[in-house]
User: What shape does this take?
Amino acid sequence: MSGARSADGRRPLPITDPGTGTTVAADAAGTRRDLRVDDLHDMLTSFYDTVALDPLLQPYFAPVDMSEHMPRIVDFWSTIVFHTGAYSGNAFRPHAEMPGLTGRHFTRWLAVMEDTIDHRFAGPAAENMKAMSHRIALSMQIRLRIEPFGDSEAMAG
Assistant: This one.
């Protein structure tokens, strides 16, 4: 990763991770910076772009118009991670209507979420979003009466 500067020499240009091709949010020193509320839209769009290519997760998200749904998702995460109060609603209900969900789906979702965050951000808010992702996934599984799988099982297929 490199920390190139803009033409004015002050603002860091976006850094592209050569391993993934993803844009990394960088501070003035060219290192990954912490997640901010205004990063959520792009980060979550990238996350769901990855989910759309995942054979296990894709069938659950294919029917959803993500461009239409994204503002609601961003509001949800901004409320959970940054306490903005932007989201009101029932995040559980749509998941209750997804037949066939297993712990394997949630474990894969978590792995994609963590990877997406880790490739772009480092800091307390990024760690909080990952921790909240785990709490939400566990809560959903409990409410759906799904037994969680371990990471090795979810990655095996």
